[in-house]
Design a protein that fits this description.
- By secondary structure, the chain is α+β, with helices and mostly antiparallel strands.
- It has a domain of about 120 residues: Thiolase/Chalcone synthase (Peroxisomal Thiolase, Chain A, domain 1, 3-Layer(aba) Sandwich), CATH 3.40.47.10.
- It is about 35% helix and about 20% strand.
- The protein contains 13 helices and twelve strands.
- It is globular, with a radius of gyration of 20 Å.
Length: about 400
């Protein structure tokens, strides 16, 4: 099978996903257009050569409806001939976009594909696409008569299953902010973040280039004072043994963002004289218990390692999305992972989780870390609603 190569990954600095956030005054299609233009300008690839733009977006409603990938590429000035598709594998949407892009190249179907993602959680709130709707249907309700639960309750169940205590969750979360702040201070993110000029709701204009969700002063002691977010009397009666430890401090914040990656074939490398930064080694996607919901990164990682013949010791870095602190902690405990290699530059608890954009965001951070440290193999995996996960392994070149 042919190889697929990663040429570049760009992203916007995170914006707080609420009114007043740095990116909240900007239409999500404009956010995505900006990274699409930046990606083609940085790589020198003519947009007319792009054969597809695969776009991750979770809340495909309101301003993010009607195939936002196509809307954004037209706004970016791409030729009319360039198609796009918007996909939804929940939080892993743009990671799935990357995997689909690489698989299209490896199969010989395409030579130049952009994978990207966007989410404006300030303008299209989480849950907007399901508001007031019964999305499970009678068959699912019959299969799970006690009912599925929201992700925050699933995070509580994961913490209980893996015996993760509140102090461990808060210490991990504070460390995420410390690592992200240190990476920002060192200029680590400068190579992946593209600045964007924005107008704030109060009319102020500025150039946004630093992640707005990082709180450098965060401490475990400070987080310990936060109250649990997801406990209700009804849920407490259903789950009487839960400790109710998930708070805003050990969860990822609501976030606005956009990111994009360029994937090409070996033939295009030679033709255009491009220098690849990495190649794709393996992919996996799997499902797991939809009530626990957040545990699928564990079997997805095991699956991609088995497919590639690699072991955990072969991996030099792993990006495991920090939707909630118990997710990467349970993953690391189950797989015997090295804590120093886990989200070494901070994760979503600090850098934000702009749903549809997070997959390509994690990919760019993983690639930059491999390049900075001289590592060879990196793994990316993230939990997804309804109990799914993608896992991807790249090799730095």
């Amino acid at each position: 099978m042919a190889e697929a190569y990663l040429i570049d990954v760009v992203r916007l600095a995170s914006g707080k996903g609420k009114p007043g956030g740095a990116l909240s005054g900007t239409h999500p299609a404009v956010l995505l257009s900006h990274v699409l233009k930046a990606l083609t300008e940085r790589t020198g690839v003519d947009p007319a050569r792009v054969e597809d733009v695969i776009t991750g977006c979770v809340q495909q409603v309101g301003e993010q409806a009607m195939n936002i990938g196509r809307t954004a590429l037209l706004g970016a000035g791409f030729p009319d001939s360039v198609p796009a598709v918007s996909i939804n594998r929940q939080c892993g949407s743009s990671q799935q976009a990357v995997d689909f892009a690489a698989q299209a190249v490896m199969s010989g179907f395409a030579d130049v594909v952009i994978a990207c993602g966007v989410e404006s959680m300030s303008r299209v709130p989480m849950g907007a696409s399901t508001l007031g709707l019964d999305t499970d249907g009678p068959e699912v309700a019959a299969r799970y008569p006690e009912g599925l639960v929201n992700q925050g309750v699933s995070a509580e169940l994961v913490a209980q299953r893996w015996k993760l205590e509140r102090d461990e969750l808060d210490a991990f979360s504070a460390e995420s902010h410390r690592r992200a702040a240190a990476a920002t201070e060192s200029g680590f993110f400068d190579g992946e973040v593209v600045p964007i000029d924005v107008t704030l709701p109060d009319g102020t204009t500025l150039t946004h280039r630093v992640d707005e969700t990082i709180r450098a002063s965060t401490s475990a002691e400070g987080l310990a004072g936060l109250r649990a977010s997801f406990r209700t009397d009804e849920l407490a009666a259903r789950f009487p043994d839960l400790a109710w430890q998930i708070t805003p401090g050990n969860s990822s914040p609501l976030t606005d963002g956009a990111s994009a990656a360029l994937v090409v074939s070996e033939r295009v490398l030679r033709e255009l004289g491009l220098t690849p930064r990495a190649r794709f080694v393996g992919f996996a996607v799997t499902g797991d218990d939809p009530v626990l919901m957040l545990t699928a990164p564990i079997p997805a990682t095991q699956k991609v390692l088995a497919r590639t013949g690699l072991g955990m010791d072969d991996l030099d870095a792993y990006e495991v999305n920090e939707a909630f602190a118990p997710v990467p902690l349970a993953w690391a405990r189950e797989l015997g992972a090295d804590p120093a290699k886990l989200n070494p530059n901070g994760g979503a608890i600090a850098l934000g989780h702009a749903l549809g954009s997070s997959g390509t965001r994690l990919l760019g951070t993983l690639l930059a870390d491999l390049e900075q440290t001289g590592g060879r193999y990196g793994l990316q995996t993230m939990c997804e609603a309804a109990g799914m996960a993608n896992a991807t392994i790249i090799e730095r070149l």
